[in-house]
Design a protein that fits this description.
alpha+beta; seven-stranded mixed beta sheet; 10 helices; 434 residues; 24 strands
């Protein structure tokens, strides 16, 4: 596959309330970008990101899942996260290593408690955010109502970039307010006559929001002068990075409508790692990377997920785990798309890769060049809030349970377990009973 420089990488994280279509949105993105050749469905248990047996059976995401696609000469790394509070650690672990967040909102329910909780995590992370109103094809969807709930419950800075054509079963496409064109069945067409007045109203509001984010432009706009396309693009991107504008797009992940417009918007307006202003990003420096996720696969063992902040890594190179002062060999490195691993010989600054069979490395460890040791800021995972006693079904299997829990805890940093000396019980602690 093509090699991408740091300026051509976009790292995004999809967050939102449980069962609102986040995984289906990720699937549609991969399908639209031709990273996969068929559009899977969560209900059918055949999506790229929900591949764990429990996820397929329950039809919910339990783990964060990483995938990537290529779109218009840019590489987009996607982290699809669970929406249920029990698995909030997966969200907390993903946010620090991306530059942009996509908040997925259901067009039927609008902003609910889960959405508000996700928004709080986004605000704490200080990451630029885009909002995607999903499930526009559902009965009882209401774009206007969902948009109103965003403004009232989240932020007044929301600014629609696209608006829907039709609703429910009649939902057929979107109108892109920036270029003032309609997108129907993957083709750019003129705005339907019955939508021209509404599109004009929304476009004027959008241009006003963009102009208001830049002092030099608001004067020009108020004097009646039209903003040039360059001024509009520049101010919009700057406004997103500075949190002055929260763009809103819409569509249907299930019917794959509005997804190409989302991809176009991500590559154009989502910041690359250097543009996001992270001081740790250094393409020309020595290698260092943060392990932000750990998982266990039956045939591969422990898999570590790394975000590269500086330099590059080569397969077969030796690095230092600075947290444990141990040497690790990166025998195999790979890009991942769900459970599919694509082995590569090298990876560069800003990218996300996996490494397998590292001896002592886990989540929150910094791997670096042996000659330039650094420690990256650790991810602050929430403390457990629920305690439960765990018992073996048969006597003598306590050690097996302890070993299994040790593996689970390597995967989920919000889990803890200990032996209570007074009650002689094995206590498992986590974020919820699920």
């Amino acid at each position: 596959m093509k090699k991408y420089g740091v300026e051509d990488i976009r790292n995004i994280c999809i967050v939102g309330s449980g069962s609102t279509g986040k995984t289906q949105l990720a699937e549609a993105i991969l399908f639209s970008a031709r990273a996969i050749d068929r559009l899977g469905k969560v209900d059918s248990g055949n999506t790229v990101c929900d591949y764990n047996t429990d996820e397929i059976e329950r039809k919910i995401s339990i783990n964060s899942s990483i995938a990537f696609c290529e779109w218009k000469d840019k590489k987009i790394n996607i982290i699809d996260t669970p929406g249920y509070a029990d698995f909030v650690g997966e969200v907390v672990g993903a946010l620090p290593v991306v530059e942009t967040v996509i908040l997925n909102v259901c067009a039927v329910n609008g902003v609910d408690v889960g959405t508000e909780n996700s928004w709080e995590h986004v605000q704490e992370s200080m990451k630029p955010c885009m909002i995607f109103i999903n499930r526009m094809d559902k009965e009882n969807e209401n774009f206007e109502k969902a948009l109103k709930s965003l403004k009232e419950k989240l932020t007044p800075n929301v600014a629609p970039i696209v608006i829907p054509i039709g609703s429910g079963k009649e939902f057929s496409g979107v109108i892109n307010l920036i270029i003032n064109k309609a997108m129907v069945e993957g083709k750019e067409v003129e705005i339907p006559e019955e939508m021209t007045v509404k599109a004009k109203e929304y476009r004027e509001k959008l241009l006003e929001a963009i102009a208001s984010s830049e002092d030099t432009l608001i004067e020009k706009y108020l004097e009646g002068h039209e903003l040039s396309p360059e001024e509009t693009r520049g101010a919009l991107k700057k406004g997103i990075i500075e949190h002055k504008i929260v763009p809103v797009l819409c569509g249907s992940g299930l019917r794959n409508i509005g997804i190409e417009q989302l991809l176009d918007f991500v590559v154009e307006y989502a910041p690359s790692p250097p543009e996001a202003g992270d001081a740790n990003i250094n393409p020309n420096g020595p290698f260092w990377a943060l392990v932000f996720k750990t998982s266990s696969e039956p045939h591969l063992g422990i898999i570590n997920y790394l975000k590269i902040y500086s330099g590059e890594i080569l397969a077969g190179s030796d690095v230092i785990n600075n947290n444990k002062s141990s040497t690790e060999r990166l025998g195999q490195i790979a890009f991942v798309r769900g459970k599919t691993r694509i082995e590569v010989k090298e990876a560069k600054t800003g990218d996300i890769v996996t490494a397998v069979k590292l001896r002592d490395t886990g989540t929150n460890d910094t791997l670096c060049d042996p000659k330039n040791r650094v420690s990256l800021l650790r991810i602050a995972f929430p403390e457990p809030v629920v305690d439960m006693a765990v018992y073996a079904k048969a006597k003598g299997e306590e050690e097996k349970i302890a070993n299994a829990l040790s593996t689970a805890i390597r995967e989920d940093s919000t889990l803890k377990f200990e032996m209570n000396r007074e009650t002689k019980e094995l206590i498992l602690s986590g974020m919820g009973s699920l």
